[in-house]
Design goal:
The complex is a heterodimer of chains A (322) and B (335). By secondary structure, chain A is of the alpha/beta class. Chain A contains 11 helices and 12 strands. Chain A folds into 2 domains: 232 residues, 3-Layer(aba) Sandwich (Rossmann fold); 56 residues, no CATH class. In chain A, the strands form 2 sheets. Chain A has an 8-stranded mixed beta sheet with strand order 6-7-8-3-9-10-12-11, with helices on both faces. Chain A has a 4-stranded antiparallel beta sheet with strand order 2-1-4-5, covered by helices on one side. In chain A, strand 9 and strand 10 form a beta hairpin. In chain B, helix 7 links the parallel strand 7 and strand 8. By secondary structure, chain B is α/β, with parallel strands linked by helices. Chain B has 12 helices and 12 strands. The chains are: A alpha/beta (322), B alpha/beta (335). At the A-B interface, helix 5, helix 6, helix 7, helix 8 and helix 9 of A face helix 7, helix 8, helix 10 and helix 11 of B. Bound molecules: adenosine-5'-diphosphate (ADP) (2 copies), iron/sulfur cluster and magnesium ion (2 copies). The site of one adenosine-5'-diphosphate (ADP) has 15 residues of chain B, from strand 1 and helix 1.
């Protein structure tokens, strides 16, 4: 049995309508449970609004979950006091999608990298400088970047800076939220290689979020497929691509545009739109677009069942899936 | 090209920044026939949108200008018009009529305070001179054609009442309202979820086949190119570096950049193998050069494994490498 680092149990987040708007709460997350063994990368995949960012933020407690547990290395993050949380913060870091928006244009890269260290008052001033410079080196940016400004860097370089900022804290756990989605494809692969290399070298535990199934395959050990705030399928990365089971995972894989005419011929285009999370369908949330749906799919939420070791899915139509 | 609906020759578009003219598009040749879809593909900043804005006469005034070349459009009347140097009034008559455009963000072309039915009907009234009632009926029919369920009811809704995918269908209906000769779609599926993207691509292929328009489809996604286009033009740092029929280019790229780009596209099932073998994902090393500091020779030379001194001496010409295939590389035979 792998050494467990993170254990998320029954995580639920409902956003209450704000201000004058009335209506039902947005059920962003419903009963999410999964584990991440120490030193492994779990991918979170799903279309926009499926709840990926909400999971990442809830785990780091950047937002307050409605209910559930987030056990990180034995500590329930959800129950931590403000002081306990502050101490926990340095162990867990967030890398954002948009390296442009998340980097201040007035600060030098050095200041940006040291900001978190300064806030946490980690070590002496020169210790902090040394750590920031080491982080810069880890992401393979030139030394002189330290005194330059974010706007002088390309998208891929800024994303490296975003990664360096997280690594400067020497975290145990990193949530990388769509870290390559804004990058061009040739640059995406550079950043993925870098992240994977660092993750292995530093033994980081990571939650890697992407809307693109094609991107997570390389970096993730395990992939979780989300739809409308619920987990549809969990499987080891290679297994998920070779033998996807849930009808939604299959549709998602088949929708990826491809130069391969054989894959294209097998395409099944899902009809309809993603329903509103304020008013999700009863039973299986995917049933309104599912090609295999039957009446029974509307009655109760299909439980996440382990089909083969490590590979679970939430669908009742076993016999139709094979 | 014979029978070209769009015929661009030697297009150079510059932006004047700090008194200097920065070339965003250089020496671009591109022709599209009726019924043909040509994809313009390249990474961000390579000049795709500037090409489309040059065609539409929508470059930011005073800053952006067509510095050289010609853009000719065969209009519905059968006459060919030069779009460069056309007065604003004539351009307005062409836009939405002979040539129409779909953008990445549907809200770029939708007005939040009018119903979608009204917005689709408007160009029909203006350009085709139809009555309110008949244009409104056309709008409902078009909404049906772009796959919007219950079009009568939807026509009375406002853009904010529709999902992103539905809005993009509406802008496609608007673009097609006057049966344009040429449709330009600039990253029309980039902002959409992948299952919705698949719907829109299927829709666009169907509409194009029914109407035999010429389509210029701009995208950064090579998978999308393969799905939608007959021919492809690959752009890099403002220049076309390779063109040809899609399948041909994908099977046998003749430019090192195209080859690198094709290798960088994640192939499902392969990445897990690479990881298991402890290997990296294929990439193109380095970064795109800034348009302000373009090197004298091939703009790709600093990232190219085949680069030699001659590559850095002068910009390679777009050479015909076989019938209908061109590559801007002096070493294309070795790619
Ligand atoms: N602060 C918020 N207030 C209200 N609703 C929110 C808030 N943040 C997210 N949501 C909603 O929660 C759902 C999940 O959002 P998110 O986690 O951002 O999805 P993803 O990252 O998968 O695109 C969406 O419907 C979104 O609109
Ligand atoms: N309004 C503008 N002002 C100055 N430069 C611009 C403007 N629009 C585009 N450019 C320049 O033209 C180049 C090409 O841009 P664009 O055609 O938008 O690229 P893309 O291929 O991503 O569509 C960019 O590098 C940018 O610097
Ligand atoms: S011209 Fe030279 S540098 Fe440019 S792509 Fe060809 S081989 Fe590479
Ligand atoms: Mg998100
Ligand atoms: Mg563009």
């Amino acid at each position: 049995m792998d050494d467990l680092y993170l254990s998320v149990r029954n995580l639920t987040k409902h956003f209450q309508p704000s201000g004058f708007s009335r209506g039902p709460a947005v059920k962003a997350l419903q009963d999410i449970s999964f584990d991440i063994p120490r030193g492994q990368v779990v991918g979170l995949v799903g279309e926009s609004g499926s709840g990926k960012t909400t999971i990442g933020r809830s785990i780091l407690r950047l937002i307050e979950p409605t209910s559930g547990q987030v056990i990180m290395n034995g500590t329930d993050v959800v129950r931590l006091s403000a002081r306990g949380l502050r101490r926990q913060r340095r162990k867990m870091q967030y890398v954002f999608q948009d390296p442009f928006a998340s980097l201040s244009s007035r600060m030098t890269i050095g200041r940006i990298l040291m900001e978190g260290l300064d806030i946490q008052r980690l070590g002496s001033k020169s210790d902090r400088q040394a750590r920031a410079r080491a982080a810069l080196e880890m992401v393979e940016l030139p030394e002189d970047a330290f005194d330059r400004f974010a706007h002088e860097f390309s998208g891929g370089q800024r994303q490296r800076i975003g990664i360096a900022r997280a690594l400067a804290m020497q975290p145990e756990f990193v949530v990388a939220d769509e870290p390559v989605s804004a990058l061009d494809v040739s640059i995406q692969a550079q950043v993925l290689n870098l992240l994977r290399g660092l993750q292995m070298r530093l033994g980081l535990t990571m939650l890697f979020i992407s809307h693109d199934l094609a991107v997570v395959e390389y970096i993730c050990d395990t992939v979780i497929v989300l739809y409308l705030g619920r987990i549809m399928e969990i499987a080891p990365a290679a297994e998920l691509y070779a033998r996807p089971r849930h009808p939604y995972t299959r549709a998602l894989l088949s929708a990826i545009p491809t130069p391969d005419p054989i894959r294209r011929a097998k395409r099944q285009v899902l009809t309809g739109d993603i329903p509103s999370p304020a008013n999700p369908p009863s039973g299986c949330v995917f049933r309104t677009r599912c090609p295999l749906a039957v009446d029974a799919c509307a009655t109760s939420v299909p439980p996440l069942r382990e089909m083969v070791p490590g590979h679970s899915m939430a669908c009742i139509r076993d016999e139709a899936i094979i | 090209m014979k029978d070209a609906v769009l015929d661009i020759s030697g297009l150079t578009t510059t932006f004047t920044i700090g008194g200097r003219a920065i070339p965003a598009v250089q020496d671009l040749d591109l022709a599209i026939a009726a019924g043909e879809t040509v994809a313009l593909v390249g990474e961000s900043g390579s000049g795709k949108s500037v090409t489309s804005l040059s065609i539409m006469g929508l470059l930011p005034r005073r800053v952006g200008q067509v510095a050289a070349g010609s853009i000719r459009l065969r209009c519905k009347s059968g006459q060919t018009t030069s779009l460069t140097g056309l007065d604003p009034e004539s351009l307005r008559r062409l836009r939405g009529n002979d040539v129409a455009m779909v953008f990445q963000e549907p809200m770029t072309s939708l007005n939040p305070v009018f119903t979608v039915g009204e917005q689709i009907a408007e160009p029909i009234r203006i350009h085709l001179g139809k009555s309110h009632r008949s244009a409104a009926a056309d709008a409902v029919r078009l909404l049906g054609e772009v796959g919007i369920p219950d079009p009568e009811r939807r026509a009375k809704q406002y853009p904010h009442e529709l999902s992103g995918g539905m809005r993009q269908r509406v802008t496609i209906a608007m673009a097609l309202a006057c049966d344009p000769q040429l449709l330009i779609a600039d990253e029309p599926t980039t902002a959409l979820d992948v299952t919705i993207q698949a719907q829109i691509l299927t829709l666009m292929a169907k509409l194009q086949a029914e109407r035999s328009m010429a389509v210029l489809f701009i995208t950064h996604n090579l998978g999308v190119v393969a799905e939608i286009a007959d021919r492809v033009a690959v752009m890099y740092a403002g220049r076309i570096v390779e063109t040809g029929p899609v399948q041909d280019v994908f099977d046998h790229p003749r430019h090192p950049y195209t080859k690198g780009l094709l290798r960088s596209v994640p192939k499902l099932g392969e990445a897990a193998q690479l990881k298991a073998q402890g290997r990296d994902l294929p990439t193109i090393a380095g970064n795109v050069p800034s348009l302000r500091h373009l090197p004298p020779g091939c703009a790709f030379a600093n990232r190219c494994e085949l680069a030699t001194e001659s590559c850095r001496a002068a910009v390679p010409v777009l050479e015909e490498v076989s019938s209908g295939r061109h590559a801007r590389c002096i070493r294309w035979r070795e790619v």
